[in-house]
Amino acid sequence: MDTKYIFVTGGVVSSLGKGIISSSLACLLKARGMRVTIQKFDPYINIDPGTLNPYEHGECYVTVDGHEADLDLGHYERFTNVPTTRANNVTTGRIYQSVIDKERRGDYLGKTVQIIPHVTDEIKRNVKLLGNTGNFDYVITEIGGTVGDIESLPYLEAVRQLRWELGQNALCIHLTYVPYISAAKELKTKPTQHSVKQLQEVGIQPDILVLRTEHEIPVDMRKKIAQFCNVSPDAVIQSPDVPSIYKVPLTMHAQHLDEIVLRKTGLPVEGEPDMAPWLHFLDRMDHAEETVTIGLVGKYVELQDAYKSINEALFQAATYNDRKLNLVYVHSEKLNEGNVEEKLSGMDGVIIAPGFGHRGIDGKFVALKWCREHDIPTFGICLGMQCMVIEFARDVLGLADANSTEMEPNTPHNVIDLMEDQKSVTAKGGTMRLGAYDCVLAPGSRAAEAYGATEVKERHRHRFEFNNDYREQFEAAGMKCVGENPDTHLVEVVEIPGHRWFIGTQYHPEYSSTVLSPNPIFLDFIKAAIAYKHDKQK
Ligand code: GLN
Q1: 162 sits in which H/E element
Q2: Phi/psi zone of residue 134: left (φ > 0), alpha (ψ -120 to 50 degrees), beta?
Q3: Per-residue pLDDT for 75 more than 90?
Q4: What's the alpha-carbon Rg for the chain, to the nearest Å?
Q5: Which tens digits make up the pLDDT trace of 277-291?
Q6: Atom of ligand 1 nearest to the CA of 508
Q7: CB 3.0–4.6 Å: which of 201, 266, 437, 485 could bond 490 by disulfide?
Q8: d(C-alpha 15, C-alpha 31), whole Å
Q9: Structure confidence at residue 55 as a pLDDT band (50, 70, 90)
Q10: Which residues are identified as catalytic?
Q11: How much distance in Å is there from the Cα of 299 to the middle of ligand 1?
Q12: What atom of ligand 1 comes closest to residue 356's alpha carbon?
């Protein structure tokens, strides 16, 4: 079977959730036995989002093969359970870099290098890269940004050409917004009409419209939109706000999005998608009554998307433990010895977030000391684990000036230090320890118990590491290094046995947690938090 290409564009406003719609469609197609992948094209000039501040685009996601990626790739993996790679996220920066490299090598044989055809050809080559592996029946390509943006134009031109070349093997879904004017009590279709016109102006006729809305859009109105936009009425689908993003596949299926896609790409529509495992998850989500309260200590707590994968991993773990997740953000910069009790005493478990640099670091130490001394289930991730080590060194080992050389390059007790192979690195982009690495867990450790395994593989994104010179000292005082990379002996997991649950991971287990395959260490952390909650109630 030829690979089918589905392009997803957006109009009217940004943040409509193209990633969720793409993921939901992929989820449905996968449940119909199709092999599906999703890729995202981002129109910015950064080579990848690795150098972006979380205030720009939220969390930086990391793929198994060590690519720093847009957070939508996290949704793709959570909804499809299929790992993504470097090829699933391409930016304008990468496209131009590749074109310029080719020009320098002389590949263009003396031609003038131009946006059309050279940049658009490079975009097209990247669109087809995943399809050409033969591993996928459907490649869904999400075009970042909004129709009408100057920077999206080369992508739309590439989509126009591909639609023409691929015929029935390609289709375009356009996502728009139908605003509700509360003063007039009316839904307005005009922005959608204008947005589709803008697409048509660049030569793209959408096959399917998905309308984001906060109110039910009446059939007549959908018919009107179909008529004005040259789209068949059954292919105008509404996507109202739902209480959980994980319900969007159901809303889409109820309006036959998967069937329409199969039909329009020339495939037979047979039977129903097998959504049983997904429905099982939703059922547990809907029936969870008791809550589990987790405090997330970090410096980006005012930003919804900065800790996206952690939020989702916690939510999945809570759901599989039949609990509602009550996630409380605790601003690390505002946390001090005077208020820590008030801020954290209501928590059943505490997460110390990943991060970079000084800001908020002291609040993390205060939180960790309090949690350690009060035996609260505590989970440190990446910088959070490094803070666990530093706090333990200061307070238990008596090394008052222990630090990470990231925070204090001249610290006499560099319990966290730059990795050896990082010392010569000067460029910032894509140079951290990135992607999945093996980790061997000590038999009998809580971490090994949580995973039910002694060999795991998790994703990394860091430059600093636990300094093995101090290992014996830590272990003698009760903080054990229970996870280690078998090749480099880098410490990947620390824990304090005897505590309810006090574990730090140098890696980011949140990246590999999906709806159908929640991460075991998150599941175990939530289990410990629930047990602690019950202990408190006794
Ligand atoms: N800043 C730390 C390092 O580079 C931790 C990074 C992180 O939390 N992702 O090692």
Answers
A1: helix 153-166
A2: left
A3: yes
A4: 25
A5: 999 999 999 999 999
A6: 9
A7: 485
A8: 26
A9: confident
A10: 382, 508, 510
A11: 14
A12: 1
Kindly list the strands in the beta sheet with 138-143, ordered across the sheet, starting from the edge strand earlier in the chain.
89-91, 36-42, 138-143, 4-10, 170-178, 208-213, 236-240
Residue with tokens 């035996």: 375
- The answer to whether 36 touches 168, Cβ cutoff 8 Å, is no
Average pLDDT of the chain, as a whole number: 95
pLDDT of 54 > 90? The answer is: no
Q: Is the CB of 462 under 6 A from ligand 1?
A: yes
User: Strand, coil or helix: what is 181?
Assistant: strand
Least confident range of 61-65, 250-254, 431-435, 480-484: 431-435
CA distance 372 to 48: 38
Q: Bridge-partner residues for 458, per DSSP?
A: 437
What are the φ/ψ torsions at residue 202 (nearest 5 degrees)? -95, 15
Per DSSP, the three-state class of 195 is: helix
- Whether 402 and 390 have beta carbons less than 8 Å apart is answered as yes
DSSP annotation of 449: H
> The tokens 């824990």 sit on which residue?
495
Mean pLDDT value of segment 322-347: 96
The candidate with the shortest Cα–Cα distance to 379, out of 299, 298, 324, 438, is 298
Q: Are 418 and 464 in contact (CB under 8 A)?
A: yes
